[in-house]
Amino acid sequence: MLNNGLLNAISKMILKFQKYNVNEQIRISKSIISWINNYSKTGFSDEDNLKVKQIIYVDFGLSITPEMAYCHPALVLKVENHRCVVLPCTSNIEKFENAYHPVYNKHGNKSFYRLYVKNGGLEKNTAVDITQIRTISLEE
User: Fold this and answer.
1) Which of 49, 50, 76, 112 has the most CB atoms at less than 10 Å from its CB?
2) Are the CB atoms for 114 and 103 separated by under 8 Å?
3) Cα gap 129→90, rounded to integer Å
4) CATH 1.10.3470: does it fit domain 41-137?
5) Mind listing the pLDDT tens digit for each residue in 8-21?
């Protein structure tokens, strides 16, 4: 039996969901499906193989604030005690072009740092958002 608090939360979520445009509804739905599919998994299967400076894909979940949401690559900064400290990345062209780089864009936005495709693990040129450091759990 579901408790009233959960039913109330689901009701509020549905009301908010209806206010979003179709593209945002699709993104939210995909994120929920991803969460449901991953919920039964036990921990991060490659935890022992995670290394600092590695690029991994992380589902940052839902967000209605300017924080990173949904699945994005992330740069691993630290792995310890079944947790991982990461910086989210974006392939947004405008953010990449304006991002700081010590050689190619010395006067760029220092909230973002350029990473290029040749830096392994990337499909596109990417901007690392250094303002959104996150700690993620590697186990349930």
Assistant:
1) 112
2) no
3) 7
4) no
5) 777 888 888 888 88
Q: Give the model's pLDDT for residue 118.
A: 75
For residue 84, list its beta bridge partners: 79, 136
Instruction: Look up residue 84 and give its amino acid.
Output: C
Which helix (H) or strand (E) is 135 found in, with range?
strand 134-137
User: Per-domain residue ranges for the chain?
Assistant: 1-38, 41-137
Q: Determine whether 121 is exposed, middle or buried from the number of CB atoms within 10 Å of its CB (0-12, 13-18, 19+).
A: middle
Whole-angstrom Cα distance, residue 58 to residue 137? Answer: 11
Q: Which amino acid is at 62?
A: L
